[in-house]
Structure formats: structure tokens, C-alpha cells
Amino acid sequence: MVKKLIYISFTFTLLLFAWASSGQQRFPKPEFENGYVQPSPVTPEPRAAAMEFFDVIVLLVALSLASYLAVKKRSRQGILWLSVFSVAYFGFYRNGCICSIGAIQNVALAFADPAYAMSITTLFFFLLPIIYSLFFGRVFCAGACPLGAIQDLVIINPISLPRWLRKVLGLLPFIYLGLAVLYAATGTDFIICRYDPFIGIFRMDAEFHMVVLGISFLLMGMFVARPYCRFLCPYGVLLKWMSMFSKWHLSITPSKCIQCKLCTNSCPFDAIDFPTNEKEVISTKSNVRKFLIYAILIPVWVVAGGFIGSKSHTFLSKANPNVYLAELLIAHPELKNDPDNIDVQTFMASGKSLETLVGEAKVIRNEFYIGGWLLGGFIGLVIALTLLNQVIYRKREDYQPNRGDCYSCGRCMDYCPVDR
Amino acid sequence: MKNKGIIIFLIILAVVIVVVIVADFTSTKPGKQGENPFLYDVSEFKKVDPALILYKETKDLRIKFDRPAGITYNDGHLFVVGDSLLQIIKTDGTLVSEIALPDAPECIEVAKDTIFIGFKKYLAVYNMAGELGKVWEPFGEKSVITSLAIWNGNIFIADAGNRKVYRYSTNGKKLNEFEGKTSDDVLHGFIIPSPYFDLAVNNEGELWVVNPGNHAFENYTFDGNLRAYWENSSMKIEGFSGCCNPAHYAFLPDGSFVTSEKGMVRIKVYKPSGELSGVVAPPDKFKDDGHAPDIAVDESGNIYALDFDKKMIRLFEPLRALPE
Question: Residue B270: CB partners within 8 Å, gap ≥ 6?
């Protein structure tokens, strides 16, 4: 507990330095001291290109260090200090932008819109953690992700969630990933950035409701470890897939497991797979039957999901400003004369005709129709595979980290009495 | 149940998270935006403390110009140019004479019995009877003459187009010119984003040139060497704001500066040191985003503002003697 307080205090001190060194604007803002509150921009000011490449180098170093500390050095202490650094640097100093999680949207939009140019540094931020996961597991989550790190620092009294609840909530990141890609690809919104609960804390300029969101996640994180990482993070989905095939991954014990069971309660993320109990394994015949049923149902889930997704496309597309505005102006043409409606007035001032807007909205809605099929099909597939996974028997003799769910935080290693 | 309190707490937090996200997602739609947080609202800066107002408007003189251009005061008369016309008016508003001009004038200055009128690219000299004396050669293709000042046989001409000040003898002989640079390798001298570039000579014979892009007054020797300056960039009442202010100015008899600003139109008085004395006319006296009135001052410290938007000369008289 004392150690934890030291880490938190150190992080706080670092963020104060980051705050103090944030510098002055090139041109001073006007002195709006008479009741006018200068609104904060949605994204932080751009950094110099050289600094962006420096950030990529820092990420590379952080990932390499996290891999070394988790796989080779086996140092929980080192990973914790790296987390503190990541919160201070990638979080408070860099204002959390651009981050690997949000880069999903840039990549999706770059694929969907040839006119959208994505910077090379954004691509690095997207790819590097994925590549490292393929080799070393989720070391990005362990110590290089500021969102994960800030949650990791507040874990105080983690409780274990029931398996069924973990499985159900575990579907949310897939849905979030699908929605984020759909909204980004259609140019609708970057919802990952918009609902990043910690970005406002890092920038210290959040609106009230985002402060509430961030604090709620941190309070929740005191008892449910890393709630955002486990039950929302869309990037975690990609890292999980990669990590499952990782070449080298953190292990609880450096050599042979002595079955002491000391590590069983060490993981706050319920990411340790226990040795299989042969007696509890249901009969092979029953298992095979279930497996076959679930396997046959996979296409049904996919088609059903796609069908529901396609039927939802009208609702989903309302989030697109053009679609919403077109519907609004068709339903309420009198709004064209409403001087207080900023969006309508901005559209009118653009000189674009309503017919053009409606034409654009139809194109976008069609994209949502196709996207709805893909999104629904993807979610259906995820549900089907999750069900199928329940009846797949994997024999385990030792206590092992679950390669997909393990964040490589190294807590379990500290509990292992085997030294070498 | 084990951990019952924690579970209730977690459920509440989960509800809060869902409510925040759903409420934000459904509320931030086009047409549902509230007040525009990025609205450029400077209305607060238009409010002026009544204690700062040192003048009151006592008289308005209607003028018949469609496009008033400039005003100056000399020996009990106001000389106003605009359209293609020069009018000489008594301070009570009586028209003394009206002289047709060959072109659209930009500015005017009077010395003894000679009237100098600045057109866009050249100067013309008239006598008090309205007879054309001499027309000067154009200053250049890019010239935009905006202001004239006369002192002791010298005439200073502000050229906003070339960002230069020319010094001529009143006979028309060029003496020198300068760009407001301390040396040739300095990148910027006078910064003039729009054709507002004023200059004047006070009763001490000091030439003060406005550097509008810097919101500065710069005092030059007649040879063009910078001797002193003061500047004040601010939207507050004591400063100048926007791309190019003050747009016009004149000297009071005690050497104070009477400044006129565009954008947020206001007329103010500064001590010779550059410290704000007070306000002649606050922004609510003028049209929003209007033109900066040209300024003329008489021997008694009365201020004549040529209001380009209302097309009138507005007389402001001091409420009390200006502080020393």
C-alpha cells in the first residue's frame, strides 16, 4: 500500500512538472477576462514533425523496455515505474494524442476514404504495439499505454467477477471496435476519442460530464481492475488476437511450476488459467455434440447478426451530421430561418443546396447499410466463437497466464516462489 | 452477499457511465447544439466605465458627401474632403466654400494659406480661394497616400502602399524617405495590413508615425531615425486591437494623442507618455464594426470626428480640463 502511494505521488509530481512545462502559446490569447470563457479545442495543438517522430521513438523504447521487463527481467517493479512514466509522458505531457487506441479510426478512415491522409507517425502508433504483441504479448497494455497505466495505478481492492459476467462484458470491446470502425470509415465520428474517459484528465480541461466519466472509471477501477481495458478498449481486441499467437510471452514461473497455488489470487484481471481438472471435464461425447451444434450455428449467428445490423443502419446513420441535418431540414424546413441554429446556419452559409446534402446523406446511408451487415456479421461471429470456445477442451497442467487476456503486468511473477 | 457494498457502488458507477455516454451521444447532434462556445463575442469590451469618459458630444454637422475621406482643422475652419470635393466649413457648420477636385481625395492638410490634398498616388496644392496651384508627380504604382503632416516648411507624406514615409519641402522637393527600419537587414519596418497609416507633428515639432500592425506610435527624427515609441496591444480600453490600429489620430494642444480605432470603433485620449487619459467616445456611439472616424482638433482641445458611417462631423467637447 505504501509503495502504491509512492508511485501515485511520483506520478502526480511528474504531471505537475508536465503542466508547468507546457509552455506559452506563440501568440498570447486575447484577455478574455470579462466573463468570457475561452473554449478548449477538441484536439491538442499539433506537435512539430520532429517531435512526433521522437514520440514514436519513445513508444518504441517503452515497448522494448516493457517486453524486456516482462519476459526477460521479470520485474514487476520495473513495469510499474514504466507505467508511471507512460502516464506522465504519453498521458499528461502529450495530452494522450495521438494514441494507439484512437489510431484505429485513422487507419479505418484511411482505408475507406482515399482523400484522407494519415501521418506515418500515426501508422507507427497503430502498428508497433500490434507487432510487439505478436512477439511478446500485450506489453503495450503492461506499461506503454497511458490509459491502462492510469487504471493500473488505482487498483486497490480488486474483486473477481463471475465468469459469465466477464464473458458477457467481454463482448463489449468487439462491439465498440466494430462501431468505431464503422463510424470512422463513414466519416461520421471518432467515437473512441470522443469517449476516451481519461483524455480530459490528461489534458486537465475536460467538460464536466467527461470528468464524471473519467472519475467513474477510476473509482470503478479500484475494485474492478482496468475496467476500460477489459470491457471497452477496442484496441485490446486486436492486441488480444495477436497476443494469443505471441512467440514469447510472460510466464508465471521461470521454470517448472511447483503447483504451490500462490499465484491463483495474484491476477486482478482473472487472466490466469488454472490446470484442468480431468474429473470436471464433461464426457467427450456430449462435448463433441455441443461443439458440432455451435459450429453449425456459426453461419446462423453471422447472418442473423448481419441482418440485424443492416436493419439498424437507419438508426446508426443518424449519428452522421450530414444524414441528421438532411433529415432535420426535410422534416423542419422552417429551421432554415432560425438564426440560433448554428448547424443549419453553417450549412446555409456554405452555399450547398439541400438536394446536394440529401444526395450525400443517401450515399452515407448506403455505406451504413453495407457497414451494418459487416458490423452485425462480425458481432454474430464473435458471439458464435465465444460460445464455441466454451466447449473446447484444452489440457493444462500448470497455472498459466491466458495469452489473450493477460496484460503482462507481472503481478503473478512476484508471487511465484520459484527463483530460477 | 460478500462485497455487497462494493457491488452496489459498482452498479451505480456503471449506470453513471452508461448515462453519461448515452446522454452525450444523443444530445450532440446538429440542431441540438446550445450556445456556440466559439462565438467571437467582444461585447464585454465595448462596455466603458463612465468615469473614463472625458468628453461629451455637443454638436453634429451634417455633410453631403457620399464617401467622406478626411478632415483637418485650421484657423477656425474645418477642411473636409470626400467624393471629388473639398468643403471649407466654419465650426458652427456654416459652409464657407466648396471646391471641386479632379479625383477622389484621401487626406488633407493645411498650412497657413495653402491646402495640400492627398490623392491615392499624388498630391495637389490649392490656395484658400480654391485655385489649383501645383500637382505633384505620382509617388509610384503601388502608392496609397493616407496622411499628411506639415511642419516648418516640411511636409510628411504617409504612403501605406509602399509602407514608407516621404519627407518633402512644401515646395515639392524630395528631402528623404524612410520605412521605419532601424537598419537595412531588419525584416519589417512599418507593418500596414490595410490602408490605415497616419502621421502627425505635434506642437514641439516631433514627428509621430503610427505603426498600425504593431499597435504602436513611433517618434522619428526628420531624417527617419527612430527616437522613441510606445505601444499597447490589448482589447481592453487602454490598448489597441485588430490588424491595424489606431487608424487615425491627432494631437491635442498639450501633446496628448487623440486616437481613433476601427473594428471596435472608439476614440480615446492618451497622454504624451502613452498612458491612457480617458475616452472621448465609447464604441456604443458608433456603428458596430464601423469605420474609424478621422480626427481633427482645435486650439481649445475640442475634437471633431468625421464619422464615415453616419456621414457627419461630430463635435466632442471636454467635460473638464484634461489632467496635466
Answer: B256, B257, B259, B276, B277
Single-letter code of the amino acid located at A46: P
Q: What's the complex ipTM? A: 0.78
* Strand duo A400-401 + A272-273: pairing: antiparallel
- The type of residue at B64 is K
Confidence (pLDDT) at A289: 86
CB contact under 8 A, A212 and B20: yes
Torsion of CA A32, A34, A35, A39, to 10 degrees: 0
Question: In this complex, which of A159, A194, A217 lies closest to B6 when CB atoms are compared?
Answer: A159
A-chain residue closest to B28, CA distance:
A319
- Nearest 5°: phi and psi at A191? -70, -25
Per residue in A300-316, pLDDT (tens digit) is 999 999 999 999 999 99
Residue that the C-alpha cell 458611417 belongs to: B309
Peptide bond into B68 cis (omega under 30): no
Using a CB-CB distance cutoff of 8 angstroms, which residues of chain B are in contact with residue A213? 16-17, 20-21
* pLDDT, averaged across chain A: 87
Taking a C-beta distance cutoff of 8 angstroms, is the pair A31, A44 a contact? Answer: no
Looking at residue A398, what is its pLDDT? 85
Distance CA A4, CA B121 (A): 76
* B68-74 vs B123-127, strand pairing mode: unpaired
Q: What pLDDT is stored for residue A393 in this prediction?
A: 77
Q: Is A318 on the interface with B (CB under 8 A)?
A: yes
Nearest by CB: A36 against B24, B36, B41: B41
Q: What are the residue ranges spanned by the domains of chain A? A: 2-15+51-275+402-415, 278-390
Pick the CATH number of B65-318 from 3.40.50.720, 1.10.10.200, 3.30.70.920, 2.120.10.30: 2.120.10.30
**What digits encode the pLDDT tens for the residues B193-218?**
999 999 999 999 999 999 999 999 99
Mean per-residue pLDDT of chain B: 91
pLDDT at A21 > cutoff 50: no
* Residues comprising chain A, all counted: 420
